[in-house]
Design goal:
Elements: H1 6-21, H2 28-35, H3 39-51, E1 55-58, E2 64-67, H4 76-83, E3 93-94, E4 97-98, H5 106-124, H6 127-130
Antiparallel strand pairs: 1-2, 3-4
Helix pairs in contact: 1-2, 1-3, 1-4
């Protein structure tokens, strides 16, 4: 089971690289080299982060991307929400229908508690912590 998808992994790498670069903008080519992913996939990720308000984009010569907020104000949970939606350990689906015990299942309730604690921890991790 993977908790975070590849997009989140590459987004974290790109955001850390941008923060460490300490430049007004970082080009996609520079990020591609540092992150180690192909250009089209990286651009897709960066566009999603831009749409979510986590990145600013500059066009033209010398253009690129920069963080839209200070590193201490960008949380791992922000990246996850922008790229994969909420973290769910179990959706309780059986043959594309909700389980008939959905409302009374004790395991579902306990897993929900784990998900809530996990969400709290991911909210605490900032980009500054990862740099």
């Amino acid at each position: 089971m993977k908790l975070l998808n590849r997009e989140v992994d590459y987004a974290v790498r790109a955001m850390v690289l941008m923060t460490r670069a300490n430049k007004p903008t970082v080009s996609v080519a520079q990020m591609q080299e540092g992150v180690g992913v192909n250009r089209p996939f990286l651009r897709k990720i960066l566009q999603k982060l831009h749409k979510a308000g986590l990145l600013q984009a500059s066009k033209g010569k010398g253009g690129g991307f920069s963080a839209a907020k200070a590193p201490e104000n960008i949380r791992l949970s922000d990246l996850i929400a922008a790229l994969q939606g909420p973290v769910k350990l179990n959706d309780c689906f059986f043959r594309k229908k909700l389980c008939r015990n959905h409302g009374t299942c004790l395991l579902r309730r306990r897993i929900g508690e784990v998900e809530a604690r996990l969400a709290e921890e991911m909210e605490r991790i900032t980009l500054r912590d990862l740099v």
